[in-house]
Every structure is written in structure tokens, then in C-alpha cells.
Specification:
This protein is of the alpha/beta class. Helix content is 22%, strand content 20%. The model has no long low-confidence stretch (mean pLDDT 91).
């Protein structure tokens, strides 16, 4: 089975780790079936969508209702 790719934008380590664990647990996947990229720490670089079963964008501290500053 191809892994899922989780794009994480949470800068807080605890929140990022808990989000990853929640995706693994609630999707019924093993940890090696979810590859995580922490975009707060590293650039994404090229991605081959065909290499993944799906791509998930995790949550973050911002949302569409935040005022533009």
C-alpha cells in the first residue's frame, strides 16, 4: 500500500505530534503508512502525487475568518 502524505503546518511540537498521532489512529493506519512533512521546519520540494495514497493538509493556527493584517 502506498503511504499517505501529511503536510503539517503546526509550529508547536506537541500540537504537530498530536495531529500526526490522531491521523494515524483515526484512519486506522500504522505510523509507517503516514509520511509527515513539517512545513514549519523544511521546504516541501517536489512531490510525486502518484507515490501516495492521498495527501492530507493538516490544521494550523490560522483560518479563513482571521482578519487580514
Amino acid at each position: 500500500m502506498k503511504p499517505f502524505l501529511l503536510l503539517s503546518i503546526r509550529a508547536d511540537d506537541d500540537a504537530a505530534d498530536e495531529e500526526y498521532a490522531a491521523f494515524v489512529r483515526f484512519a486506522g493506519l500504522a505510523p509507517d503508512e503516514v509520511e509527515r512533512v513539517r512545513l514549519d521546519r523544511t521546504a516541501l520540494g517536489p512531490v510525486d502525487p502518484g507515490a501516495y495514497a492521498g495527501i492530507i493538509l493538516g490544521g494550523g493556527p490560522y483560518n479563513a475568518s482571521d482578519p487580514v493584517s
